[in-house]
Amino acid sequence: MADLKKTREQNKEGAFFVDSSCIDCGTCYWMAPDTFVNKDGQSAVFQQPSSLNEATSALRALYSCPTFSIGHKDKSPLDKEVEASFPFPIGDPKDFIYLTGFHAENSFGATSYFIERKGPEGPKNILVDSPRFFSKMAKKLYDRGGALYQFLTHRDDIADTDRYFKAFSPLGKTKRIIHQDDATKDPLKSYEIILKGFEPYQLDSETVIIPVPGHTRGSCVLLYKNKYLFTGDHLAYSLKLKQLIAFKRACWYDFNIQIESMKKLLDFSFSYILPGHGAPFGTTQEKMKKELEKCIQWMESS
Question: What pTM value is reported for the model?
Fold first, then answer.
């Protein structure tokens, strides 16, 4: 819980506040851009919510904050309603893509996603990266069939993957997926599907995993229905710059290799970027390709 005694002086007075435990992961900036902003290296409330929609967004950020740094003084039934709304739908409703919320501190607040799918033999759900373990979330996902696959974009965003793996195990076999170049230590070495090499891996008829070394040696993205690209820390969208970006100052392997990996994505079609960090971004496939080309040019000149 956020500590009112540690409220940052940069907050605008009101119901919502941020305390000094904030790690500046950026979650609240894109979830509730009308309420939160970066001030002096941490987040702060620059404007109190003035509508139901703004209050709802601020509460989603509160429940997603990985360090419990956001507080709400004036609790109401809306707080519980918003908590219960996760996993929260995103994208085209008929595609059943969800934000899990409840970001984990040990993955620096990275976003996790849940793809709900049904097949003739039962659920074929995919959990992309992992939220922090929250028993209510685990039960919700369990009730939807758990996750046939737990796909990990890279080694940084594993969080509570193994706890969710255990929670889903009564439903049958669930498979954790990671590239071997990021599975360099236990327990990652024992995960059920270890990807090798740099060629795309066809998981099933509507899902392909594309190795994109750069941010880490074993970074991968997941393309679903030639529409949604789950990018981990490889590719993101900056609300400030209004364009696709990569994190050069948070590149742990090789930025030049990451540029070449980015160029690989020009061979694929997608209209949504669902990143680990930063705001989800959607447009047409044609415009997305142009945005990606712009990003590559930006990377090459940075």
Answer: 0.96
